[in-house]
Predict the structure.
Amino acid sequence: MKLEHEFTYVATLKPPVQIGAGPFGTRNFFEVTGGTVEGKRLKGKIITGGGDWLLIGPDGFGRLDVRAQFLTDDGASLYVYYTGLLEMNQKVADALAKGVSTDYGDQYFRTTPRFETGDPRYAWLNQSIFVAEGRVGPGHVEYKVYRVA
């Protein structure tokens, strides 16, 4: 088994709606407003209508619950759903406070994206397992997405 880099994407986000502390942690909602997808087999944009319902637990980790839509440059519509973990460490706090980006590896930020499409040109997305590593930046998140081969 090996990992093959398929694409990178950057999702732009609105400032969070702070839902607050509840019985499972602190909930924030980040609306996805756009973005880009860039790879050898997949290029396009992220469209509005998605979001991340982030739950920050007392252990210092954020649990992601994300849904979004991509529109490829050749007209295919893709749905993506993923969960994941984001370590809310000092580097993340500093980057958010200063309006700068973290580097990959500055924090544990991993997801397991699952894709759906009815377009036969992208059926490989429906039939593959993916993992991704992320980083945070001012008003956006960025992911490197790998297909498990």
In short: DSSP finds two helices and ten strands in the chain. The longest helix spans residues 90-98. The mean pLDDT is 97.
